[in-house]
Design goal:
Belongs to the universal stress protein A family. This protein is of the alpha/beta class. It contains ten helices and ten strands. The chain has two domains: about 130 residues, 3-Layer(aba) Sandwich (Rossmann fold); about 120 residues, 3-Layer(aba) Sandwich (Rossmann fold). A ten-stranded mixed β-sheet has the order 3-2-1-4-5-10-9-6-7-8, sandwiched between helices. Helix 3 links the parallel strand 2 and strand 3.
Length: about 280
């Protein structure tokens, strides 16, 4: 697997990149090469006195590269200018990445500002699966909150086609997973939710597959607001990562991120692994 690792070169980002446990987790799921990317925003000018931003950022990436190469990865670095999420997505497409990774400090003291703008925009527009890692806030020595990235996975499904694609991620994640909770929320607003086989039966079929991979699995069928119930299930089971598709039953192509996915990404304390639909021509 080939991954894009986006960094703003902050202390929090450095802590995530150099965390041996999280790097080992990436290796367990098959990541072999990493493209380290940092973006100089378009509104930051190169002529700022005493600041050669590209050179300084390249020096920082070189340090990160050494740490990752020592951990066993093949690493390339990219210092680019532009709008961060657009450039990161562009590089992901250019190198045919299998995964993009971005850190987020999670909930901010400012109400409704719970995820960095780059992470939010990537969640809405990513062209490949996206891993949002949660990093501690308001500390001099920040660290990843759940460094065993994929040890316990909460998989949320609405049984849509893209939820099936998200479940397929277990084919690689299983190599780092010990346990999983499969959650379906019956929403009063979604009349299609109970069509076909009963949710418990459908979750049980998925659980059987994971059990064959020696992943200790439980199922959980809830009713209520999907985002609220997914987050409540996470609070009860303490997963390291929440796995879900970025779009569910909506047929609106312009809806880049379903309201449920957006709410989970922005409100969760856990890492979030977001799987988008296949990119159309």
């Amino acid at each position: 697997m080939r991954a894009i690792y986006a960094t703003d070169l902050s202390a929090a980002s450095e802590a995530a990149i150099k965390n041996e446990t999280s790097l080992e987790s990436l290796q367990q799921i098959g990541v072999e090469s990493i493209h380290l990317v940092t973006v100089v925003p378009s509104n930051v000018y190169a002529g700022v006195p005493a600041m050669n931003l590209e050179e300084r950022r390249q020096q920082a990436l070189d340090r990160y590269q050494s740490a990752m190469e020592s951990a066993g990865f093949d690493v390339e670095t990219h210092v680019v200018r532009g709008t961060p999420h657009r450039r990161i997505n562009g590089i992901a497409e250019a190198v045919r990445a299998d995964l993009s990774i971005v850190g987020s400090r999670g909930k901010s003291p400012l109400e409704n500002r719970v995820i960095g703008s780059t992470a939010r925009n990537l969640a809405r527009t990513t062209v490949v699966p996206l891993l949002v890692t949660r990093i501690e806030r308001e500390t001099d020595e920040p660290a990843i909150r759940r460094e065993h990235l994929f040890r316990r996975i909460l998989f949320a499904t609405d049984f849509s086609e893209n939820s099936e694609r998200a479940f397929d991620a277990f084919s690689s994640l299983r190599h780092a997973a010990d346990g999983a909770t499969l959650v379906h929320v019956e929403s009063p607003k979604d009349v299609e939710a109970t069509e076909g086989a009963e949710p418990t039966e459908r979750l049980s079929e998925l659980a059987e597959q994971l059990e064959e991979w020696d992943i200790d699995t439980r199922i959980d069928v809830r009713r209520g607001d999907p985002a609220d119930e997914i987050l409540a299930a996470a609070a009860e089971t303490d997963p390291t990562t929440i796995l879900l598709g970025s779009r569910g039953r909506s047929r609106l192509r312009r809806l880049l991120l379903g309201s449920v996915s957006e709410s989970v990404v922005t409100r969760a304390d856990e890492n979030v692994y977001l799987v988008p639909p296949p990119r159309t021509a």
